[in-house]
Amino acid sequence: MLFNRSNLLDQVVASTGLALRQGTSLHFFNILLLPLVWYPVCVSGQPGSITIWMSEHGQQHYDYNFQLPFTGVMVFGQDQETQPVFHLRVKCLDEDQLLYTYLDFVLEPVTGSQPGGGSVYFHGVGPYTITLDHNDTWCLKRWGTQVKLLCTKSRSLPVGPLSWKDENDICTQLHIESGLQLAPTGVMLTKCSPDHFTCRDNQCVPLEKVCNSENDCTDGGDEIDCFTAHPLATYISTSPPQIPLPLQVDVNIRTADVDLMNAAVRANLRLRISWEDARLEMRHLQNVYKRLTLYNSTLWSPNVQTFNSLEFATTASHPVIMAKRLSPGKTVDGEYLSFPGHGNPVVNIIDLHTHTYCRYDLLKYPDDIQTCNITFQILNVRQDRLKWELPSSSEVKCPVFHEEFWVKDCRFLLPDNFSSRFFVQLTFRRKNDYHIWATYLPCILLLGIGYGTLLLPLDNFNERGTMSLTTLHVFISLYAQTTASLPRTAYLKRFDLWYVFCIAFLTLVIFTNLATSTTTNTRGTTAEGPFWWHPSGPVEQRNEAWSSKKLSNSSTQQQQQQEQQRHEESRRKRKELVLKTASVVLGVTSLIFIIVYFTGAYITM
């Protein structure tokens, strides 16, 4: 009972229900008030009454009489004006649980009538003292006896983490009313309160700072033995915590690379799988995620593998099981903060390298949008024993940057709520920057060069033919190189249509140049193009016919020359007309095709 010295009488009466009464004969009993000194107390031997008077260092202070419901009583009082200075913490083990007992002491000087061989001793709130015996040995004893309960060796005050020896079954005596046979597992005399950790130099550290990866004790004692996971007796590392097991999955796709030739996608992912395990007691949790460690044991965690992989998925590092503080912890006397598995989820972080099959649709290449599914399966939980926390059971983070594609969307998909498989769906849209500069712009320039041969003078057939044939050869080489970098398909891609049009366009330009060609042979006569129609017959035949006529007069020769010039001028005008018509038709056709092609590509983006 906690009593304040100023109104001790009222509080004792209110707490015990004893009635005030005068007593006659007296016998000695004890009552204890702080500052931790045993006070002699007189108790009436007459049944039904008790008279209490107290003295401190021989001076009487109180004289009270109480009506008793029985003949014997022990009243313990604690003065709240003074707090205990030292606490002897005794930890006892009872099969599967720990029992803590605190005995409070103050440091008092040794006088002639008081026990102890040193200059000071520890005066207890209860009937205990801690005194210095010979050979630097400090022992816990009952008041007024020499029976040793606990002993330790220390050249200074026996405060802090020391090894205490059980001399007389201390745990059984402290818990004698329970009838349990207990064994001590730890004893410490400290000035720290139960919510503080005791360093070797007697410094007190709040339990929130124990095992936080920072040395708060000068010797780093608060960062020793920081095992954060402690399985209960019912824990089986090969079995899931419960059935059905609620799971939550977060996926962070760090990088993703499209492998067109192998119809696959390569991805580096980080899976973050969280669940609750009520079979665990977790310690030293912080407000940020902290790795769970066990002593000589393993934790159960989901075994995740990719299902549609071209090769076994490899892990970048060993899976890391972590947890953080989400619910209030329980103070375990001066040692640690305990957190239950329920309400504090366990998180398993797995880094994976996957090479997964993906069916690509290249019909609209290079303006295509591809969708790939990476399938994962949890192997150590049956399909009907999972329960995904829907609707917001997962979060998928897409890669921010990719050289060839825009990552348009990332989704988490489930076949059903109890399936052991889950999917991560990636949607890619190809970037046009590369093909604009590496394909379309060079092709348009080559088309312009080929088209420009139609604008050269009619007599420059060699230049026109050389330029158009060279341009066609470059187109065919570029098309072959591009096709070699793509997988073979049974259908024409949009990219194929672009190259087919460009090749057909240049082929028509070459045919036009051939049809309108005019060259001079070695005999000095003019040769017409192979596709040209001559209404008056070939020029060479007419020249030979005219030369066979041995015209004698010069006027006839002049008429023949004039007629030949008229025919040549007429043919030249017809060739120029055909060339201009072809250039207009081909130019308009190419312009319409380019506009339609890029408009369709823009609409489908």
From TrEMBL:
Annotated Neurotransmitter-gated ion-channel ligand-binding domain residues: 245-394
UniProt cross-references to CDD domains, sorted A to Z: LDLa (cd00112)
Predominant location category: membrane
Domain of life: Eukaryota
Gene Ontology terms, MF aspect: extracellular ligand-gated monoatomic ion channel activity; transmembrane signaling receptor activity
One cellular-component annotation, GO: membrane
Keyword vocabulary terms for this entry: Disulfide bond, Membrane, Transmembrane, Transmembrane helix
Keyword Membrane in annotation: yes
Region (Disordered): 544-572
Cysteine pairs bridged by disulfides in the record: 192-204, 199-217, 211-226
Localization (cell): Membrane
Record field: transmembrane: 437-458, 470-491, 497-515, 577-603
InterPro entries membership: LDL_receptor-like_sf, LDrepeatLR_classA_rpt, Neur_chan_lig-bd, Neur_chan_lig-bd_sf, Neur_channel, Neuro-gated_channel_TM_sf, Neuro_actylchol_rec
UniProt xrefs under SUPFAM superfamilies: LDL receptor-like module (SSF57424), Neurotransmitter-gated ion-channel transmembrane pore (SSF90112), Nicotinic receptor ligand binding domain-like (SSF63712)
Membrane-related topology note: Multi-pass membrane protein
Sequence ranges of Low complexity compositional bias: 548-563
Protein name: Neurotransmitter-gated ion-channel ligand-binding domain-containing protein
Species annotation: Petrolisthes cinctipes (Flat porcelain crab)
